Amino acid sequence: MVTPETETMRAVGFHDHGDVDQFELLTVPVPEIDPDEVLVEIRAAALNHQDLFAVRELDHYIPEYPFWGGGDMAGTVAAVGDRVTGWQAGDRVVVDPTITCGECRFCRAGEQSMCEQYEVFGEHRKGGFAEYAAVPAANLHAVPDSIPFETAAAAPMVTGTAWRALATRAGLEPYESLLVVGATGGVGHMAVQLAREVLNVDTLYATTSTAEKAAFLRDLGVDHVVDYTEEEFSARVWELTDKRGVDVVYNNVGGETWVPSMRSLRPGGRLVASGATAGPTPPTEIRLVFVRQLNVMGSTAHSATDLDRALGYVWDGTVEPVVQETFPLEAYAEAFRTMADREAYGKLVLTLD
User: Fold this and answer.
1) What number of other Cβ atoms are within 10 A of residue 292's Cβ?
2) Which of 26, 145, 247, 304 has the smallest set of CB atoms within 10 Å of its CB?
3) Is residue 311 part of a domain?
4) Distance, CA of 200 to CA of 306 (rounded, Å)
5) What is the pLDDT of residues 213-266, one digit of tens each?
6) If you ran DSSP here, which 8-state letter would residue 48 be given?
7) Is residue 310 part of a domain?
8) Is residue 308 part of a domain?
9) Residue 165 maps to a domain
10) How many other CB atoms sit within 10 Å of the CB of residue 111?
11) Same domain, 277 and 224
12) 127 vs 3, residue with greater confidence
């Protein structure tokens, strides 16, 4: 096992852009920490679609190569900077993947996800696909002893993103209906759980692509699952709602699902988006927006308050990120291939012993 005194560590990263075959197991220096940072010994790091975006196209974000992602990471404190208080070696922690300045007008208003200097581990900074990570102490959250590192690592990005989109941005109410498009993904399956277990949504609809995934969603509490490979989901939702439409659609997919999402909404309904895994520039239908007087809104990551609330529901067992499979760091190629081929539901996690 590498220790903080060791000069090198293993990391899964890339030197050039392309696709998942660019990932390799690297030997790199253990990062040095600034006075306000901690060195976290990584025990688990969850995969997200941002890791695919990073290797495929985000060269304008990445500061230097080789680069490794991993915005979601959990482990133990290995060392603390000179100005750090409240944390000590051995503490079990999970990392807020967003880095903000704390001083701009948005941060002062509690809207950290709009920070003028907003960054994310795994896109703008090297992340948790390594044995150690240097992290601002302000980004740490304590992990209860009862929570496995794999669960903790799978939680922040998807839970914070889903909570902000549904509760903070869309303002989903208990008497309303919700359609989650692409519901078996990381953010989608947490949106389902938060809507059902915390926000107490009246009727919950979801789309997916296989019978196995449909069963998974029903187990999570979805009332109506639509297989979009078998039928047009907007037509089915329209039928299920007696041609009224749903109150809110949550879409992290984009691409060809964008216009059907609008068609699924009632007049005055809300469409909230915080991802575009199937494409960022879909065709649209402006007439639907003004004829039905739809509210179309974006949502990015989470504020500090959003994440505090969301993690609290994980720590007390109200919701739980479903870890479909864990892989040792050396099996990174299989993990990334599984995500790239859209074979996963829930979360995939790399583990380090």
Assistant:
1) 16
2) 145
3) no
4) 18
5) 999 999 999 999 999 999 999 999 999 999 999 999 999 999 999 999 999 999
6) -
7) no
8) no
9) yes
10) 17
11) yes
12) 127
